[in-house]
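Data availability (excerpt). The following record was deposited with the supplementary files.
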Amino acid sequence: MSEEFTVVPVAHVVGGRTEPTDDYWGGSRAIIRIDPTRFNEGSVVGLEDFSHLEVVFRFHLTDPTDLHPEPRRPRNNPNWPAGGIFAHRNMRRLNWLGVSRCRLLRIDGLDLHVEDLDAVEGTPVLDIKPWFQEMGPRGEVHQPTWPTEMLAAYYATPAD
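Predicted structure:
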């Protein structure tokens, strides 16, 4: 089952936060700057009609030796149950991929101005998709209580 493939960034994050943190991403603004050597303004035609984007990116600042496939407690909190690598959404993943859903504020050429993107300055963006409501979860959504507790301040603004 050993298969490898190469991906190239379609864009990079410009501005916004410079350091990844666990919380307070609310209100953070940045630009997703699409690579002008690969794309022209035709690549974003129609995107302005969408309020939100789904962005796939690479956790480029993560130490590659900081991979923990064994079960561990979220944020090392002893009150939350240990879970394996696929029961977490953090940066400690084999391929170092992240997915974020953010608000599209406006488009200026190949610059996508966004809010609430939880990726930092310089982050390589591997794909950008408009958010379709129909592509959200189908059926009843359930989860344990610890993600709600853990993420209570994730999209809070620093002043909250």
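Summary of structural features: The CA atoms of residues 8 and 126 lie 6 Å apart.
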